[in-house]
Write a structure and sequence with these properties.
Helix content is about 75%, strand content about 0%. It is mainly α and about 500 residues long. It folds into 2 domains: about 400 residues, Up-down Bundle (Sodium/glucose cotransporter); about 100 residues, no CATH class. Helix 3 packs antiparallel against helix 12, helix 17 runs antiparallel to helix 18 and helix 17 packs parallel to helix 19. The longest helix has about 50 residues. About 55% of the residues are buried. The model has no long low-confidence stretch (mean pLDDT about 85).
Length: about 500
């Protein structure tokens, strides 16, 4: 117990010290929101990765999908690394950094407003961010409750409030730079922690080979196997189609999430994007691959405590139960690991929400003549507001909020991914097509929440994203285009002419 408490005290003390240190980087709006667009590749890559993988992934998704798909759930981690990290950086990184800088856009709604010359799009996008990020913020706390109960036997509410207060302190003090440095430290903890946990859990089952053998012996009569012997050790698992839906949502979804794309706005240079691509991909392979690989052995820990009164599996209990037999020092590392994952994601979400609401919704629309000093103050106040709101929802989540948590990724990515991606590459994207993408993305995920015409909310989110990618070009072909001179001017940022010294003084003779 002493070891676990000491680890937590050191962890919390470091976070606050970094917040104090970074105060000098948050004296203006650009510094507070974007770190003055001067953040290096290591900090940016780790900020991207730690915002991507929270306690929702480590405790909830790894337990749930590992239980359903066995070892094949590792494909989700591989998809996260290749599609959600590598390809996202390659396709979006450079163009996002250049165009957002040219447009002086600090947020995703701001990008839509300036790229498509529409204040209404900017306001609507900021409203979508607010509605769907707040419940997602509340869901970040959920993975902590059972782990803290197992390790410390202290109330969940105490854990939630303590984490919220500490996150709020360093975000308010240091802004984006404090979150980036903390994310780097938290990312290192996550890398070491997940490796230690996977090795320890497998050793507890007699090693990797024996654990695989036991998993293969699970009888085909079990409902989840769909009658397949050895289903949980097969290459694509018992349900490949739904597994593909999870891979698409959790991987391609990051392309349209404002808190993820925001990292590209702040990176220092194009060279740093290349370095960050490699670092981010390796990070995702270890963290996400490790989480889902660990979850794939969940059925070896089958226990009556994992079921509710109706016989349903309590997915959030699977990973904590798997870890309950580990030595105290490892449990302490796991607690710090999950805290790291949760606090990094939480800080990214509240910073995105407060900056979007201030810069895109309140400034010049509700509050006129909002100078820079007042913008900074308002953003800090809203950081507190969003943290308090997320705590209230996390402590006593109503049913509709719990449902909304599950579709927030699908709704945000379904609405934003297509117009953002096409807007970086294609001059022909129209305002009408952006509105259509907003309507399709939100429409599919929200209506499915009530009528459930798509069985899985995960698949609904994946379909919403794919639908947006189809709808935007189709609508753009039949609706009025933006003025050619406007789009040419915007896209000129990719073709800036530079003058260099000639290396040879005399021309080469033919």
């Amino acid at each position: 117990m002493i070891a676990k408490i000491v680890l937590l005290v050191i962890f919390f003390g470091t976070m606050i010290a970094i917040g104090i240190y970074c105060r000098r980087h948050s004296t203006n709006v650009q510094g507070f929101v974007l770190g003055s667009r001067n953040v290096g590749p290591w900090l940016t890559a780790f900020a991207y990765g730690t915002s991507y993988f929270s306690a929702v992934v480590f405790v909830g998704y790894a337990g749930q999908f590992g239980w359903k798909y066995g070892i094949s759930s590792t494909w989700i981690g591989i998809g996260n690394a290749l599609l959600g990290s590598l390809l996202a950086w390659v396709v979006l990184g450079r163009r996002t950094r250049i165009m957002s800088n040219y447009l002086s856009a600090a947020t995703m709604p701001d990008f839509f407003g300036k790229r498509f010359d529409s204040k209404a799009l900017k306001i609507s996008a900021s409203a979508i961010v607010f509605i769907f990020l707040v419940p997602y913020t509340a869901s970040v706390y959920n993975g902590l409750s059972r782990l803290f109960g197992m390790a410390f036997d202290i109330p969940y509410s105490v854990c939630v409030i303590a984490m919220a207060v500490l996150t709020g302190i360093y975000v308010i003090l240091g802004g984006y730079m404090a979150t980036a440095i903390n994310d780097f430290i938290q990312g290192i903890i996550m890398l070491g922690g997940i490796a230690a946990v996977v090795v320890s859990v497998l050793n507890g089952q007699g090693g990797f080979t024996k654990a695989i053998f036991q998993l293969a012996e699970i009888p085909s009569e079990i409902p989840g196997t769909l009658g397949q012997q050895g289903a949980y050790t097969s290459f694509f698992g018992p349900d490949p189609l739904n597994l593909l839906g999870v891979v698409i949502l959790t991987s391609l979804g990051t392309w349209g999430l404002p808190q993820m794309v925001h990292k590209f706005y702040a990176i220092k240079s194009e060279k740093d994007i290349k370095t960050g691509t490699i670092i981010s991909t390796v990070f995702a392979i270890v963290i996400s691959g490790g989480c889902y690989f660990l979850g794939g052995f969940g059925r070896l820990f089958d226990n009556p405590s994992l079921y509710n009164e109706q016989g349903g599996v309590i997915y959030d209990s699977i990973i904590p139960f798997m870890l309950s037999s580990l030595p105290d020092i490892l449990i302490g590392i796991v607690i710090v690991l999950v805290l790291s994952a949760s606090m990094s994601t939480l800080s990214s979400l509240v910073l995105t929400s407060s900056s979007t609401l201030t810069l895109d919704f309140l400034k010049d629309n509700i509050i006129k003549n909002l100078n820079e000093k007042r913008q900074l103050l308002l953003m800090r106040i809203l950081v507190v507001f969003f943290i308090v709101l997320s705590v209230v929802l996390a402590l006593d989540p109503p049913t509709f909020i719990a449902q909304l948590m599950g579709i927030s990724w699908g709704a945000l990515a379904g609405a934003f991914l297509a117009p953002f991606l096409y807007g970086l590459y294609w001059k022909g994207v129209t305002k009408a097509s952006v509105w259509a993408s907003f309507a399709v993305g939100i429409g599919i995920t929200v209506t499915n929440m009530f009528w459930k015409y798509i069985a899985s909310p995960i698949n609904a989110g994946a379909i919403a994203m794919i639908a947006g990618l189809i709808v935007v070009p189709l609508v753009s072909l039949v609706t009025p285009k933006m003025k050619k001179e406007e789009t040419d001017k915007i896209f000129s940022c990719y073709d800036e002419t530079v003058t260099v010294k000639r290396k040879t003084a005399l021309p080469v003779e033919e």
